[in-house]
Amino acid sequence: MVDPTSDLGEDIDEADAPSCASCGSKIIQSPTHRVVTWVEDGSVRTQHFCSEECKVAAADEA
Q1: I want to staple 49 with a disulfide (CB 3.0 to 4.6 A). Which of 2, 6, 28, 54 is the partner?
Q2: Which residues sit opposite 34 in a β-bridge?
Q3: Where are the chain's structural domains?
Q4: Local structure of residue 4 (DSSP, 8 states)
Q5: Cα distances (angstroms) measured from residue 58 to each of 6, 13, 14, 31, 61
Q6: Measuring CA to CA, which residue among 59, 7, 53 is closest to residue 38?
């Protein structure tokens, strides 16, 4: 699998691309792609967002 966070998503097939945690859109070659990373129960967790707006919307829902 190609790293979905590499260089704005170049060379990533849509099937392997991350989905926005807020709106569900596939994130491919998006300069507005945001990733939130945290550690939970000893494991690294991530959430991908297609834009700052979706990141803020998800935070508002939490």
Answers
A1: 54
A2: 49
A3: 7-61
A4: T
A5: 23, 25, 23, 19, 5
A6: 59
This model's pTM is above 0.85: no
**8 A C-beta contact, residue 55 and residue 34:** yes
Give whole-number Cα distances, 37 to 13, 34, 48, in Å: 23, 10, 9
Q: What pLDDT does residue 15 have?
A: 86
Q: What's the CA dihedral at 5, 8, 12, 17 to 10 degrees?
A: 60
Q: Is 12 exposed, middle or buried (CB count within 10 Å of its CB: 0-12, 13-18, 19+)? A: buried
What are the φ and ψ backbone dihedral angles of 15, each rounded to 5 degrees?
-65, -30
